[in-house]
Every structure is written in structure tokens, then in C-alpha cells.
Write a structure and sequence with these properties.
The chain contains 12 helices and 12 strands. It is of the alpha/beta class. The strands form 2 sheets. Strands 1-4-5-8-9-10-11-12 form an 8-stranded parallel β-barrel, surrounded by 8 helices. Strands 6-7 form a two-stranded antiparallel sheet. The longest helix has 17 residues, at 152-168. The chain binds ligand PBG. Residues 130, 132, 134, 177, 213, 216-217, 285-286 line the site of ligand PBG.
């Protein structure tokens, strides 16, 4: 039996303010109550592969990032696998570009060759093919042009052929990033019709027309030579529209969706996480990477801490996995 006097005294005790600092006192306690974690298996490393490149070439606007030639992919694939990195996403840079982006859907094009090389060297590495025309078109737009505008429906079959070429080369996942309406359905249909029912789609569903893609366009030589991408990529001011994009892609059969850029879109990630049950990725884009690199190079912030904080925030907002140029470095430190 409890002593009734003692019970009363407990009830009457002045409540102490909640002491949230108790669980922050040392590393073990902080680790115990940590709400989100980050594992190298949740990170996707982008790889830029350039046709005919003899030796790895640094991308000036992205310190530590290099364009690779085909011969270097075996080593890269083995390193990523050894480090437990979740996946690699391949961006091909062809030797020749034309108005139709023909090299993107060439069965022997640079992306297909790269995917084949990665898979041959490391069959267990999850390989994703980026499906877009901008690296392959002479004008740098993500689709074919008609009267100065990107023609949505004329672009769809080209994206579908690109996806089929990448699937045939061994891609586990194809990731359409052109922001054409109906691209997921077109790609899913073409994959199924060509014997690639098992190849998954990761749609860049909520892809904003962002200033933070600048360094990537250097890396992939894909800056539009005229105009901008606001006619197909999303207006940064909108969030309900992002939900409609995701909904449409899920209906078209997307297995996973991507939100991009990452840190400027944390609200979009959170809302998407609360509304949809498909796996959701976030793309920490080139500009987000280069800002941290540049500030760190100036001694203005601590690179590893800023990186880990940004990645933690992206996970906390709801991303299951993150495409990031930091993937390999993060995994290397986790292994050290
Ligand atoms: C289009 C594509 C882009 C990025 C990924 N896929 C460029 C763009 O839309 O201009 C940007 C990624 C980055 O900035 O890191 N193929």
C-alpha cells in the first residue's frame, strides 16, 4: 500500500521545469535519443562520365568532383561498393551533341557504356541512370525545341528510348529529370514493352527551376545556350503544385520520387513525406555542395560539420535517401 501522505506530497510538489538538457549531457545520451540517422547506404553518389576522356578532370566549380572517362569507372564502382554507398547516379557527357539529343538514346552511347562498366565491375552496386536530354542537346534544353519552346510530347518518346537504352545496359533504376508531363508513364510503358518490367523508376517529380544548379551545368556542359528552364521546371514559390507533380508521377507508376534542390525545399519534403508512402529522395544539388566547399575553403565554416548538419536536416524533413556529391567523403569518414 502506498502511504497516502506521501502520495499527497508528490501531487503537491511544485513541478520542476522540464530539464531537456538531461539527455544531452554526453555523446552516449545524445546518440541514444537521436531521432534520425544517416547511413552511407542512404546516399547516392553522382558520377559524371565524359566520352573520350583520357584522365579524370576536375570540375572547377565543384572542388573534389571530377569528370571520369570510361576506364576509371571500374575502380570507382569498386570503391563505392567497398564504402557501402547506397547507389551511383550516372550523368553522361557525349562527344557530339545535336538538336535531338540523339546520343542519349544510342544503345552504345556514353551513359549506356558507363552503366555497363559500373555493373561489370561491381554487380552489387545500385546503378541509376539520369534520363534527360540536356547533356545531349546542342541547345542544352531538356527536350526538343519547336518554335523556340520545348515540345513536351515530341520529347516523350526520346526519353522513353533513353530509359530503355539504360535499362538494357543494366541500370537498376532510371531517373527522369526532364520535367516533361507524362514522362513517367511514357518510360514505364516503354520499359515494360521492352522486357524491363523489373527496372524501377525514380522520378524527379518536384524539380524546381533553381539557381543552385549552376555548378552542375559546368560539370555536365549542359547550360541552356538560350533561355531558361522555367517553362518546364517548377516555380520556387509553389508547394501545392509539387504535391500535384508527385501525385501525377505516382499515378503514372513512379516507384520513388525525388525533391530537388534539397535544403531550399525542406517544407516540400516534409509535406510529401506526410502525404505519400513511396520512398522519397532529396537531391542536394551542386550549388548546395559548392557553397559549403567554398565557405570551408575560406575558413568560414567547418566543412564536415556543415555537411553533416545539412544532410541531417534533409533526413529530418523526411527524405529516405539523399543524392549528394558528399556521398563518398561521408562514407569514407564513417569507415575511418
Ligand atoms: C538535368 C539535371 C540537372 C541536375 C540534375 N539533372 C540540371 C538542370 O536541370 O539544369 C542538377 C543537379 C545539380 O545541380 O547537382 N539532367
Amino acid at each position: 500500500m502506498l502511504d497516502p501522505h506521501r502520495m499527497r506530497s508528490l501531487e503537491q510538489a511544485d513541478p520542476e521545469p522540464t530539464r531537456l538538457r538531461r539527455t544531452r549531457q554526453h555523446a552516449g545520451l545524445r546518440r541514444l535519443v537521436r531521432e534520425t540517422r544517416l547511413d552511407a547506404a542512404q546516399l547516392v553518389q553522382p558520377i559524371f562520365v565524359e566520352e573520350g576522356l583520357a584522365r579524370p578532370t576536375p570540375v572547377p566549380s565543384m572542388p573534389g568532383v571530377r569528370r571520369l572517362g570510361l576506364e576509371h569507372l571500374a575502380q570507382e564502382a569498386q570503391e563505392l561498393t567497398g564504402l557501402g554507398v547506397g547507389a551511383a547516379i550516372v550523368f553522361g557527357i557525349p562527344a557530339v551533341k545535336d538538336t535531338q539529343g540523339s546520343a542519349s538514346h544510342d544503345a552504345n552511347g556514353i551513359a549506356s557504356q558507363a552503366i555497363r562498366a559500373l555493373k561489370r565491375a561491381a554487380p552489387d552496386l545500385v546503378v541509376i541512370g539520369d534520363v534527360c536530354l540536356c547533356e545531349y542537346t546542342s541547345h542544352g534544353h531538356c527536350g526538343v525545341l519547336k518554335g523556340g519552346d520545348v515540345d513536351n510530347d515530341a520529347t516523350l518518346p526520346l526519353l522513353a528510348r533513353t530509359a530503355v537504352a539504360q535499362a538494357a545496359a543494366g541500370a537498376d533504376i532510371v531517373a527522369p529529370s526532364a520535367m516533361m508531363d507524362g514522362q513517367v508513364a511514357a518510360i514505364r510503358g516503354a520499359l515494360d514493352a521492352n522486357g524491363h518490367k523489373g527496372v524501377a523508376t525514380l522520378s524527379y517529380s518536384a524539380k524546381y527551376a533553381s539557381a543552385f544548379y549552376g555548378p552542375f551545368r559546368d560539370a555536365a556542359s549542359s547550360a541552356p545556350s538560350g533561355g531558361h528552364r522555367r517553362g518546364y521546371q517548377m516555380d520556387v514559390a509553389n508547394v501545392r503544385e509539387a504535391m500535384r507533380e508527385i501525385e501525377a508521377d505516382v499515378r503514372e507508376g513512379a516507384d520513388m520520387v525525388l525533391v530537388k534542390p534539397a535544403l531550399p525545399s525542406l517544407d516540400v519534403l516534409r509535406l510529401a513525406r506526410d502525404r505519400f508512402d513511396v520512398p522519397i529522395g532529396a537531391y542536394q544539388v551542386s550549388g548546395e555542395f559548392s557553397m559549403i566547399k567554398a565557405a570551408a575553403a575560406n575558413g568560414w565554416l567547418n566543412e564536415a560539420n556543415a555537411r553533416d548538419e545539412a544532410l541531417a536536416a534533409i533526413r529530418r524533413a523526411g527524405a529516405d535517401f539523399i543524392v549528394t556529391y558528399f556521398a563518398k567523403a561521408f562514407a569514407q569518414e564513417a569507415h575511418a
